[in-house]
Amino acid sequence: MEYSVDALASLVVFSLALSAALAALAGSLEVVTSASTRRGLVRAALPISIEVESLNGRCVVRAPRRCLVSVVVVSPRKSGLEYRVVRGLAPLEVAAAERDWVVAFTYASVAVRPGAPVRGRAVVTMYGVARAEPELGPYVVIGGSGYRVVPDLRPAASAAAPESSAYLIRNSTLALGVRG
Predict the structure, then answer these.
(1) 14, 19, 34, 76: most buried by Cβ count inside 10 Å?
(2) Domain range list for the chain
(3) What are phi and psi of 61, to 5 degrees?
(4) Interatomic CA distance for residues 163 and 172, integer angstroms
(5) What is the structure's pLDDT at 157?
(6) How many CA atoms within 13 Å lie on the side-chain side of 81?
């Protein structure tokens, strides 16, 4: 009986010491691995603006940093609208005539290069032309020779301080504000 109490007490002491040592080791491993993997990393940031430039029958979508860009080229035709979607890393070059609408999306901003007037109305999302307005934005509604970006955040950006607003307008581009 005396040996079983001693064995139980030593098992409890050994278990507590082992768990404390493993907890300390796990904490130090996390610090060591995070310090060693941070050397080559660059702080991630979303682009605050994208631009669509026209160059002799082609358009170039530029961003301050390399990012995934989804470009929808909408071509007004007599029979209706034709569109194509091109995805790639910025700067992205896309074939587009002067009469084509070029709408560029990232996950943080939208840029539009207007083209020839469109008969009726077209709703352009980052996946193509939609039949109806989607519930979630951003998307662009093209009507005639004008367009509007939804959600329209210019009134919200002027009413709220840029630090407290999630979206902002910079260089005629809708951008998602990121703190950090």
Answers:
(1) 76
(2) 1-41, 51-176
(3) -95, 120
(4) 18
(5) 43
(6) 25
